[in-house]
Amino acid sequence: MMNFTNPLKTKLFDKLEDQLYWQLDAQLHCQLTTQLYQQLDGQLTNQLYIELGRQLHIQLYRQLDNQLYNEIYKSTQN
């Protein structure tokens, strides 16, 4: 806060200082929020790919297990 000899100047300066503070606060909040969402998006995407890969491997192993069982069963029937 600056003190001018003219009270009107002091009031205007304080008002501008307050406006600048809130503007900078809003910009910083926006930047930090954007960074956080980008980080979370990256983490969630990685987790999604990991889980998707895990599920696909489970399905593949089940299919292969069923095929192998069927082949073994067919070979014992002949």
Could you please describe the fold and organization of this structure?
The protein has 78 residues and is mainly α. 91% of the residues lie in helices and 0% in strands. It has 1 helix and no strands. The protein has one helix spanning 7-77. The termini are far apart.
Summary of the model, kept short:
This protein has 78 residues and is an all-alpha fold. It has one helix spanning 7-77.
Please compute the radius of gyration using only Cα atoms: 33 Å
Count of DSSP E strands? 0
Portion in beta strands: under 5%
- Note the total helix count: 1
Tags for this entry?
mainly alpha
Which helices and strands appear, and what pairs or packs with what?
Elements: H1 7-77
